[in-house]
Amino acid sequence: MSNHVVGALRRKIDGRLVVATHNAGKLREMRELLTPFGIEANSAAELGLDEPEETGTTFAANARLKAQAATTRTGLPAFADDSGLSVDALGGEPGIHSARWAGPDRNFTRAMELVEAKLRALDALAPAQRRAQFVSALCVAWPDCHLEEFAGDVAGRLVWPPRGERGFGYDPMFLPDGLDKTFGEMTSEEKHGLPPRGSGLSHRARAFIKLAEACL
Fold it and tell me: How far is CA 59 from CA 23, 91, 94, 164, 177, in A?
Protein backbone atom coordinates (compact mmCIF):
# COMPACT_ATOMS: atom_id res chain seq x y z
CA MET A 1 0.00 0.00 0.00
CA SER A 2 3.06 2.30 -0.37
CA ASN A 3 4.27 4.34 2.58
CA HIS A 4 0.90 5.75 3.60
CA VAL A 5 0.02 5.43 7.27
CA VAL A 6 -3.57 4.54 8.16
CA GLY A 7 -4.80 5.78 11.52
CA ALA A 8 -1.57 5.03 13.42
CA LEU A 9 -2.47 7.97 15.65
CA ARG A 10 -5.84 9.60 15.11
CA ARG A 11 -5.46 13.02 13.52
CA LYS A 12 -7.93 15.86 13.82
CA ILE A 13 -9.28 17.70 10.79
CA ASP A 14 -9.27 21.48 11.10
CA GLY A 15 -9.37 24.41 8.74
CA ARG A 16 -9.69 23.96 5.00
CA LEU A 17 -10.48 20.63 3.39
CA VAL A 18 -10.78 19.47 -0.21
CA VAL A 19 -13.80 17.26 -0.91
CA ALA A 20 -12.50 15.02 -3.67
CA THR A 21 -15.62 14.71 -5.80
CA HIS A 22 -17.12 16.02 -9.04
CA ASN A 23 -20.57 14.70 -8.07
CA ALA A 24 -22.84 17.60 -7.11
CA GLY A 25 -25.23 15.45 -5.05
CA LYS A 26 -22.43 13.81 -3.12
CA LEU A 27 -20.76 17.20 -2.50
CA ARG A 28 -24.01 18.61 -1.12
CA GLU A 29 -24.37 15.74 1.36
CA MET A 30 -20.72 15.87 2.43
CA ARG A 31 -20.89 19.63 3.00
CA GLU A 32 -24.05 19.18 5.08
CA LEU A 33 -22.20 16.66 7.23
CA LEU A 34 -19.12 18.88 7.63
CA THR A 35 -20.86 22.22 8.23
CA PRO A 36 -21.71 21.69 11.93
CA PHE A 37 -18.00 21.18 12.62
CA GLY A 38 -16.96 24.48 11.03
CA ILE A 39 -14.95 22.85 8.25
CA GLU A 40 -14.44 24.94 5.09
CA ALA A 41 -14.83 22.58 2.14
CA ASN A 42 -13.97 23.14 -1.51
CA SER A 43 -14.65 20.44 -4.07
CA ALA A 44 -12.16 18.99 -6.52
CA ALA A 45 -14.38 20.31 -9.30
CA GLU A 46 -14.34 23.85 -7.88
CA LEU A 47 -10.55 23.71 -7.71
CA GLY A 48 -10.26 22.51 -11.29
CA LEU A 49 -8.79 19.12 -10.40
CA ASP A 50 -9.09 16.26 -12.85
CA GLU A 51 -10.98 13.14 -11.79
CA PRO A 52 -8.50 10.31 -11.23
CA GLU A 53 -9.25 6.98 -12.86
CA GLU A 54 -10.90 4.73 -10.28
CA THR A 55 -8.81 1.59 -10.69
CA GLY A 56 -9.44 0.12 -7.23
CA THR A 57 -11.31 -3.13 -6.75
CA THR A 58 -13.05 -2.04 -3.52
CA PHE A 59 -14.89 1.04 -2.27
CA ALA A 60 -12.07 1.68 0.22
CA ALA A 61 -9.38 1.51 -2.45
CA ASN A 62 -11.18 3.99 -4.68
CA ALA A 63 -11.86 6.42 -1.81
CA ARG A 64 -8.16 6.27 -0.91
CA LEU A 65 -7.13 6.84 -4.53
CA LYS A 66 -9.33 9.95 -4.87
CA ALA A 67 -8.25 11.44 -1.53
CA GLN A 68 -4.56 10.88 -2.25
CA ALA A 69 -4.83 12.43 -5.71
CA ALA A 70 -6.50 15.56 -4.32
CA THR A 71 -4.08 16.08 -1.43
CA THR A 72 -1.11 15.59 -3.77
CA ARG A 73 -2.43 18.21 -6.19
CA THR A 74 -3.42 20.81 -3.58
CA GLY A 75 -1.18 20.31 -0.57
CA LEU A 76 -4.35 20.36 1.56
CA PRO A 77 -6.07 17.58 3.50
CA ALA A 78 -8.56 15.84 1.21
CA PHE A 79 -11.75 13.96 2.02
CA ALA A 80 -13.13 11.37 -0.41
CA ASP A 81 -16.09 9.03 -0.46
CA ASP A 82 -16.59 6.01 -2.66
CA SER A 83 -20.02 4.52 -2.38
CA GLY A 84 -22.57 2.52 -4.26
CA LEU A 85 -25.42 0.07 -4.37
CA SER A 86 -24.81 -3.63 -3.86
CA VAL A 87 -27.70 -5.90 -4.92
CA ASP A 88 -27.68 -9.42 -3.49
CA ALA A 89 -29.43 -11.09 -6.43
CA LEU A 90 -26.94 -9.50 -8.83
CA GLY A 91 -23.90 -10.84 -7.00
CA GLY A 92 -23.16 -7.44 -5.46
CA GLU A 93 -23.51 -5.44 -8.66
CA PRO A 94 -23.40 -2.62 -9.53
CA GLY A 95 -21.12 -2.16 -6.51
CA ILE A 96 -18.00 -0.11 -7.26
CA HIS A 97 -19.37 0.43 -10.78
CA SER A 98 -22.59 2.11 -9.55
CA ALA A 99 -21.76 5.44 -11.20
CA ARG A 100 -20.61 3.78 -14.42
CA TRP A 101 -23.99 2.12 -14.86
CA ALA A 102 -25.38 5.64 -15.19
CA GLY A 103 -23.12 6.33 -18.18
CA PRO A 104 -20.99 9.41 -18.91
CA ASP A 105 -24.00 11.68 -18.60
CA ARG A 106 -24.77 10.39 -15.06
CA ASN A 107 -28.26 9.29 -16.06
CA PHE A 108 -29.40 7.45 -12.95
CA THR A 109 -32.91 6.99 -14.28
CA ARG A 110 -31.31 4.74 -16.88
CA ALA A 111 -29.14 3.09 -14.23
CA MET A 112 -32.18 2.25 -12.09
CA GLU A 113 -33.94 0.86 -15.17
CA LEU A 114 -30.91 -1.35 -15.84
CA VAL A 115 -30.94 -2.70 -12.27
CA GLU A 116 -34.66 -3.40 -12.54
CA ALA A 117 -34.28 -5.11 -15.92
CA LYS A 118 -31.58 -7.40 -14.53
CA LEU A 119 -33.75 -8.29 -11.53
CA ARG A 120 -36.75 -9.02 -13.76
CA ALA A 121 -34.57 -11.21 -15.98
CA LEU A 122 -33.92 -13.28 -12.84
CA ASP A 123 -37.65 -13.19 -11.95
CA ALA A 124 -36.63 -11.44 -8.72
CA LEU A 125 -39.95 -9.81 -7.96
CA ALA A 126 -40.62 -10.72 -4.31
CA PRO A 127 -39.25 -8.38 -1.62
CA ALA A 128 -36.98 -11.11 -0.24
CA GLN A 129 -35.36 -11.45 -3.68
CA ARG A 130 -34.62 -7.74 -3.89
CA ARG A 131 -32.30 -7.28 -0.93
CA ALA A 132 -29.63 -4.60 -1.32
CA GLN A 133 -27.20 -2.47 0.64
CA PHE A 134 -25.78 0.98 0.18
CA VAL A 135 -22.08 1.03 1.12
CA SER A 136 -19.84 4.02 1.79
CA ALA A 137 -16.08 4.15 2.32
CA LEU A 138 -14.56 7.44 3.51
CA CYS A 139 -10.91 8.43 3.43
CA VAL A 140 -9.13 11.54 4.63
CA ALA A 141 -5.58 11.98 3.28
CA TRP A 142 -2.95 14.48 4.35
CA PRO A 143 0.04 15.68 2.29
CA ASP A 144 2.45 13.87 4.63
CA CYS A 145 0.83 10.51 3.65
CA HIS A 146 -1.29 10.05 6.78
CA LEU A 147 -4.67 8.43 6.12
CA GLU A 148 -7.86 7.96 8.12
CA GLU A 149 -10.41 5.48 6.75
CA PHE A 150 -13.97 4.59 7.77
CA ALA A 151 -16.89 2.60 6.35
CA GLY A 152 -20.65 2.36 6.79
CA ASP A 153 -23.60 0.58 5.21
CA VAL A 154 -27.37 0.43 5.35
CA ALA A 155 -29.53 -2.55 4.37
CA GLY A 156 -32.87 -2.54 2.62
CA ARG A 157 -34.63 -3.65 -0.53
CA LEU A 158 -35.35 -2.26 -3.97
CA VAL A 159 -38.79 -1.06 -5.02
CA TRP A 160 -40.27 -0.42 -8.44
CA PRO A 161 -41.29 2.05 -9.70
CA PRO A 162 -38.86 4.51 -8.08
CA ARG A 163 -40.40 6.79 -5.46
CA GLY A 164 -39.44 10.38 -4.69
CA GLU A 165 -37.33 13.06 -6.30
CA ARG A 166 -35.00 13.88 -3.41
CA GLY A 167 -31.49 12.60 -2.92
CA PHE A 168 -29.58 11.39 -5.96
CA GLY A 169 -28.34 8.26 -7.68
CA TYR A 170 -30.30 5.10 -6.83
CA ASP A 171 -32.05 6.72 -3.83
CA PRO A 172 -35.60 6.57 -5.29
CA MET A 173 -35.57 2.76 -5.55
CA PHE A 174 -33.94 2.02 -2.17
CA LEU A 175 -36.22 1.36 0.80
CA PRO A 176 -34.22 1.00 4.04
CA ASP A 177 -35.24 -1.74 6.45
CA GLY A 178 -37.98 -0.84 8.91
CA LEU A 179 -39.08 2.33 7.10
CA ASP A 180 -41.82 3.21 4.64
CA LYS A 181 -39.98 5.95 2.73
CA THR A 182 -37.33 5.44 0.08
CA PHE A 183 -34.19 7.54 0.28
CA GLY A 184 -35.66 9.49 -2.63
CA GLU A 185 -38.67 10.47 -0.49
CA MET A 186 -36.65 11.57 2.55
CA THR A 187 -35.45 15.01 3.49
CA SER A 188 -31.71 15.42 4.02
CA GLU A 189 -32.33 15.42 7.78
CA GLU A 190 -34.24 12.13 7.58
CA LYS A 191 -31.65 10.50 5.35
CA HIS A 192 -28.39 11.45 6.97
CA GLY A 193 -29.01 13.98 9.72
CA LEU A 194 -26.57 13.40 12.54
CA PRO A 195 -27.54 12.76 16.16
CA PRO A 196 -29.03 14.27 18.23
CA ARG A 197 -31.30 15.86 15.60
CA GLY A 198 -31.25 12.91 13.20
CA SER A 199 -30.57 9.20 13.32
CA GLY A 200 -27.56 9.03 11.00
CA LEU A 201 -29.48 6.62 8.80
CA SER A 202 -27.62 6.64 5.48
CA HIS A 203 -24.49 4.65 4.70
CA ARG A 204 -22.53 7.90 4.31
CA ALA A 205 -23.81 9.26 7.62
CA ARG A 206 -22.93 6.02 9.42
CA ALA A 207 -19.38 6.16 8.08
CA PHE A 208 -19.18 9.89 8.85
CA ILE A 209 -20.23 9.38 12.48
CA LYS A 210 -17.17 7.12 12.90
CA LEU A 211 -14.98 9.74 11.20
CA ALA A 212 -16.37 12.53 13.36
CA GLU A 213 -15.73 10.61 16.57
CA ALA A 214 -12.11 10.04 15.57
CA CYS A 215 -11.14 13.19 13.68
CA LEU A 216 -13.50 16.11 14.42
Answer: 16, 16, 12, 26, 22
Give the residue ranges of DSSP H helices in 75-162: 108-121
Written in H, E and C, the secondary structure of 165-185 is CCCCCCHHHEEECCCCCCHHH
> What residue type is assigned to position 72 of the chain?
T
Phi-psi region of 75 (alpha: psi -120 to 50; beta: other; left: phi over 0): left
Active-site option among 14, 81, 82, 153: 82
- Say which amino acid occupies 66: K
If one counts the domains in the chain, the total is 1
Q: What is the CATH number of the domain that holds 211?
A: 3.90.950.10
Asked whether residue 108 carries a pLDDT value surpassing 80, the answer given is yes
Does the pTM surpass 0.85? The reply is yes
Share of the chain above pLDDT 70, in %: 96
Which pLDDT score is estimated for 3?
Answer: 41
**123 catalytically annotated:** no
Range of the domain at 66: 5-215
